[in-house]
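Annex B. Sample input.
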Amino acid sequence: MNIKESLQKSELFSGLSEEHRNEIESKGENLSLKKGQTLFWEGDPGHSFFILIEGSVKLFKTTEEGREIIVKILTGGEIFGEVILFVNQTYPVSSTILENSSLFSISKKAFHQLMEKEYFRNEFVSVLMKKQRYLSNRIHYLTAFDVEDRFFKFLLENYGEQGRYRINLSKKDLASAIGTIPETFSRLTSRLKKRGIIRWEKKELILKEKFWEEYKQL
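Annex B, continued. Sample output.
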């Protein structure tokens, strides 16, 4: 996927005209980051926001005790850090590159220049409001579903409906991503193994045959 495709498919910019998407492209720069690099830390001054072209990025918060809480695992085409445009002067989360990734960066200053155009501004603010529903949906997700459901919904949302999954996250990060602790996640996977639903082969998770067909009927 390239930046043109990412802008066209993105939640925030797909509704804009091709002319305005081209303007966005002209205002930004391409970045190549390696696995393990930190793009920004929670509390850093917010200078830019980003579009993930290829790879994966972890957004997380750190508790006072030093424990990481994963907010979201991003995959290709997703936008992040845009909260600094209007709401925060600093980044509310930290971001770490999970695998070698290509990103597109747009500075706050450059984007505000685009926002001076009335049509661009009205269109963008409309779709931005939809993005902000994510946090309320996340709260509902954590309270409405048990840990097993959250695990399988995480697979669907981040990797799609497959029989085999190549997962680059540690089990600790997986636990955090579905809103639980490593001990609870270990007990969950043990139960699923005993029931013949999953098995692990190194970093590859394999579901039993026709699992998703059965899951949809529950």
